[in-house]
Amino acid sequence: MGIISGFRATNLPKAFALNSISSSIAVIVALVMRDSLDKTKKNKINAVDITLTFIVTFMSAMLAHLLMYILFGFGDGMVLN
After folding, report:
1. What is the pTM of this model?
2. Which residue segment(s) compose the domain that 47 sits in?
3. Is residue 80 part of a domain?
């Protein structure tokens, strides 16, 4: 049960909205990270930049899902008791 209990993924529109919020948080962090790397490297893409972007994006997705779980109880249906 999340902090905000009135907005749970009990039907498709609410589930899509909550998933979109979670995905948007991760994508925004990835774009900001990639933009900051592009500004410092002058558009030279290498394996380190790709790996760093992947790690930061993965961690931001995990944090976004954790935040959504705490606020809305998002993902409760994916856990078996």
Report:
1. 0.74
2. 12-75
3. no
